[in-house]
Amino acid sequence: MSRFNTICLVVIATMTSSAMSAAPLSFSRDIKPILSDSCYHCHGPDDTARESELRLDLRASVFELKVLTDGAMLEHLTSNDPDVRMPPPDSKRILRTEDRQTLILWIEQGAPWPTDDRHWAFVPPQRPAVPTSKKKDQAANAIDQFIHARLEQENLTPAKRADKATLLRRVTFDLIGLPPSKQDLEQFMADPSPAAYEQAVDRLLNDPRYGEHMALDWLEASRYADTDGYQNDRLRYMWVWRDWLIQAINTNMPFDQFITEQMAGDLLPNRDFYTQVATGFNRNHRINSEGGSIPDEWIVEYVADRVETMGTMFLGLTLNCSRCHNHKYDPIEQREFYELFAFFNNIAEAGLGPNNGNSPPFIAVPATWPHLTTAQTIFIVPDPVKIQVVQTSVPRPQSGSPKTVMVLHELENPRDTYLLNRGQYDQPQKSEKLTPAIPQAIGGWDPQWPRNRLGLAQWLTSADHPLTARVTINRIWQHFFGTGIVKTSENFGVQGEYPSHPQLLDWLATEFVAQNWNVKAMHRLIVTSDTYRQSSAASAELEQQDPENKLLARGPRKRLSPYAIRDAALFNSGLLVEDVGGPSVKPYMPPQIWRSISNAAYQQDQGAKIYRRSMYTYWRRTVPPPTMMAFNASSRETCIVRNDQTNTPLQALTMMNNITFVETARLLAQRELANTTVTAATRVVSGFQRITSRKPTGDEFTVLMNDYDAYIADFAADLDSAKKLLSIGASPYNQDYDISELAALTLIMNTILNLDEAITQN
């Protein structure tokens, strides 16, 4: 008997009993991700990196070479010989012990490999039947039935509903990015109607602030900024597109139309000024204005950026890998990247940006925007790119003024598209001209669609597209629960995480399409579910069993967005200016903040502008607003659909010392002191409730009042320090109040603003 057969017999003898008793493995869920992570690098789609004839990403290759049936793969998995064991040590790939055991178990179970072995995300979703759970009477809608059925499998019980105050605070932050007002909270708490919550949800969905808040995720994903980026980071003007975005969300534009107008609003048969502005979405990328740059190179970069952004936002795929080679993990070939590239390679743009201002193509915006007359809504043909030598003898295009917005516009004579060796602009394979096409692995192209961006939009929004609805509904779920049903919301590919609730994801995706891509309807469905309304409190046992709350046996608990943290402080203080839309503003920033990257000085705005919502804060890519970056905002250089969340001392220092938070603490104190008929204790309780949406516990109240008394004494003995504290910020302090009392209450409000609960949704 050979050494190999001996190994196999020993392994099989020792593991057969466990294999027989183990639950059948799913190839898509359990096996393919392991092969992708540990094996595809050498035995995957990329023929330039493949180490042998074996392709583990193709069923036909595996069965043709018989590596499963002849025992070769089992030997590679079980051998201790470094020359035999896979992956080899010099590959730098690690196969975890538990994954190795899973592969062995799969082989012992007969290595079932379905004929249709497409990655689950590339198979169009089929509407699953809604399961029946034992707790069906406690289910508010279909979401709960899916969740309850899964919890029953895991022998877990869903949590009770959150208390009314917590629930209103949660949903208000989630829908409009602000806390409930004291009046809204009191009215809600006093309303005994069973429909009180649903009525509150409907009110919030129709609040103009809803569009502002929901636009934030889109701004980060679309890489919106007020400057071009790169070293020079010149100024641009794209706020008109942001206005369009807010309005589209508030009017509940169907999501298929929402995509189509942004991708191809200039190509629509009924195109107009508004659909033209919508295409600004694809002009939000960085633009290089450095004098020594090669224009042809940067046109390639801009087009590639559009492909990569589309891939991340709508397909949930990392297409950028295939720019230089066949994708190592997903079935996307390099050729297919450039076929997608061809859809965007016909934009009439310059490779080099102007010194400052919008880069063509751009259109003039009427002074009456957004309230346009019928005549002003007519589609405008942008001026052609005019290259001229300015100042530094660098040929640059004409510059668009602040009264313009960048848009898409097609060239009369299309550029040729070729595959670029290693993605290099100057290494085209001119043996074959490429035309617009979609990846074969995704499929679904209708020959009647035009081979341009409009056809691409029609493909993305087709009812049977495997990805768009799934990817979008997953990001919606992520917004409300902190984590998507697919945790890796930017990656639905083979290396992405498997859905925690695959049937729920497909039901929601098909429901989204069935509801005519109605975003507000999906938001309402989610926030009115019992799953969303659960208490976020977890027992020690549940924390141990499901620390990430993937099974959703409890409600979501997540930190507020960096924008909501600042906005909530402004709102509670009464400082927030709630005008919707308009140009970006420049609130407080550290002195000389722009000097590190340019000679341009940061000119802080004055008056009401510095108290506008954070989404309107001027965004310079090389020096983003530090307060927001401290809380993990995206720098907006590339498309980001999932931000990391960190906890650092800098965050606490920001909350304690940033001008905005000190000033809002003072204004909060002044709001409470305005009620001259109550005691200091009542004011502390009222301020606590404004910030946290609940009253303090006895212990919390004692600590705060002890601090208050100590601060009163300290400031009474040092009025200069009190005045210095009260002078922070542009708004003057009210000198009608006792200085030491106002300063003491300011520090108390500052303390409450710094509580973890103040910046967290429970």
Please explain how this structure is put together:
This protein has 762 residues and is mainly α. It folds into four domains: 3-116, no CATH class; 118-158 and 468-558, no CATH class; 230-460, no CATH class; 657-761, no CATH class. α26 crosses α30 (739-753). The strands form three sheets. Strands 1-4 form a two-stranded antiparallel ribbon. Strands 2-3 form a two-stranded antiparallel sheet. 43% of the residues lie in helices and 2% in strands. The chain contains 30 helices and six strands. β2 (387-390) and β3 form a beta hairpin. Residues 1-21 have low confidence and may be disordered. The longest helix has 21 residues, at 295-315.
List the helices and strands and how they pair.
Blueprint: H1 3-21, H2 27-38, H3 40-43, H4 59-65, H5 72-78, H6 97-108, H7 142-153, H8 164-176, H9 182-190, H10 196-205, H11 208-221, H12 239-250, H13 255-264, H14 273-278, H15 295-315, H16 334-344, E1 362-364, E2 387-390, E3 394-397, E4 404-406, H17 453-460, H18 468-481, H19 502-514, H20 519-527, H21 530-533, H22 540-545, E5 558-559, H23 562-573, H24 626-630, H25 649-657, H26 659-673, H27 680-692, H28 698-717, H29 719-726, H30 739-753, E6 760-761
Antiparallel strand pairs: 1-4, 2-3, 5-6
Give the key terms:
two-stranded antiparallel ribbon; 762 residues; 2% strand; 6 strands; 30 helices; mainly alpha; 4 domains; single chain
Oligomer: single chain
Rg measurement, Å: 29 Å
Distance between the termini: 64 Å
Uncertain runs are 1-21
Question: What is the helix fraction of residues, given as a range?
Answer: 40-55%
Nearest-integer average pLDDT:
92
Q: How large is the count of helical segments?
A: 30
- Count of structural domains: 4
Overall strand count: 6
- How are the strands ordered across the major sheet? 1-4
Characterize the largest beta sheet: strand count, sense, and whether it forms a barrel: 2 strands, antiparallel
Global outline: globular
Assign the structural class, choosing from mainly alpha, mainly beta, alpha/beta, alpha+beta, or little secondary structure. mainly alpha
Beta content: under 5%
